[in-house]
Sequence to fold (177 residues):
Amino acid sequence: MIQAFGNNIFKTEAQPVGAGTSTKELIAKLIEVQKAAKHPFVSGKHLGLNLQAFSVNLNYSKFEATDFKQVFINPKLIATKAPLVSGLEDDLSLPRLTVSIERPKEIEVSFLDEELREQTAAFSELAARWILHGTDQLNGISIIDKLNKHRQRSLKEHLKRLSEQKIETNYKLEYDS
Fold:
């Protein structure tokens, strides 16, 4: 079950994945949910786990599919490079909503991969966009937060319908009670 936007987990900073975490099971669950939802991005927060982990698989991108896929554990953004480019983003926690967000075209990130090896790598274009989406979410920043105030106000009715559980999805959403 995917956590719906508005749940408190999306407003907090995620905790690092540590030694006590069953990391292999976490990774398997991220990938399983991602495959079922057919979405390019799934994080621990979507699963109700406030942990610094997400999976990006651009085979599921509706806008421009590629073969890029990577799991990111405890990611840290090292650098961003201009220019900023606008692109469409959505999120499983915000069904039926796609917004245009400006993000740097290139980034450098350190992280642990699926095998828990330390990595530092540069990413660009669509991969950079979804990785930044992920690092924002882990830091308690949603795609709604990235919008100007006018655009945020224009989404008020959609967010109200979501909180009232009136938006249909092909996956189950879990709402704060």
About this structure: The domain at 2-164 is CATH 3.90.45.10 (Peptide Deformylase). The mean pLDDT is 95.
